Amino acid sequence: MNHFAKSVLIAALFPLAFTACGKKESEVSAPAATAEAPSTGEAASCSAVKFADIGWTDITATTALSSVVLEGLGYKPVSTIASVPIAFAGIKKSQIDVFLGYWSPSMTPIVEPFLKDIKVLEKPNLVGAKYTLAVPTYAYEAGLKSFNDIAKFKDNLDGKMYGIEPGNDGNKIIADMITKNAFGLKDFKMVESSEAGMLTEVSRSVKNKKWIVFLGWAPHPMNVQQDITYLSGGDDFFGANYGEAKVYTVTASDLGTRCPNVNKLVTNLEFNLDMENQVMLPIMDKTVPNVAAKAWLTKNPAVLDKWLDGVKTLDGKPGLEAVKKYLGV
């Protein structure tokens, strides 16, 4: 995750950050008769496709992949960093067009109040993900194997459980467990920070062989960068099978009529664990996300055939040919 301070700053400016692309067609001035209008049937304002990025590296990666494809189609995608609730509020108001990171089931309680005002695409863009609590493998091997074991090792854990940015669904689940004294956790404290902040704490703890329990998920490079193990027994809070998750695409409710070509692309998007891990690794090493995404697409152009099925450029030309030319493949 990006630092929360950055998220707060941008979220505070959120209502001012959007351009005419967020307006309904009735609010956008018609192009002059002499102007060249895109032949996709979309308003010219659709060129600025607005994504929500909640600071999770996996969503940053998929947003970058999508953005590079849109650039190849002649669009000008932009990303806005925001917390999960702010992101959904923006989608509700059509100030945000697309969000690629609705993790189900953990995020569902946050999403439910918005469901009548947004569109969740029926088919997930990622399957086989997971999101639950994890520990270093040495702690697991010493007896901390399940949610029921956490309270037994309160002293080893300094009475702390590590989350990510405030407002995150995982943090809310941890807070709920503490409030309800689930698994005897009433005396624990949750430490909130960010993805980067939490992973720094995990790395520091592993280096010193200290015990730590934290939010873990896949896909993410943490699964290969650190020797970690996921805890069992959290089905009632994170979902069955170690928090097994599907990730869905969410769009503004009017995107299909306002920007049908963009809507077609995002409907086509499907990712997989290996793909996301490969794009995330350089991003974690400070490579600019779009640079990492473009490099991956250049080496793996076959994925474009499905993504660009029925998709055109902004000016109405064949999309696949244009994106391949943009990538130099």
UniProtKB/TrEMBL annotation:
Recorded GO CC terms: ATP-binding cassette (ABC) transporter complex; periplasmic space
One Pfam entry name: OpuAC
Segment forming the signal sequence: none
GO-annotated molecular function: choline binding; transmembrane transporter activity
PROSITE patterns per UniProt: PROKAR_LIPOPROTEIN
Domain ABC-type glycine betaine transport system substrate-binding residue range list: 49-299
GO BP, one annotated term: choline transport
Coiled coil: none
SUPFAM superfamilies: Periplasmic binding protein-like II
Protein name from the UniProt record: Choline ABC transporter, periplasmic binding protein
Organism (species): Methylotenera versatilis (strain 301)
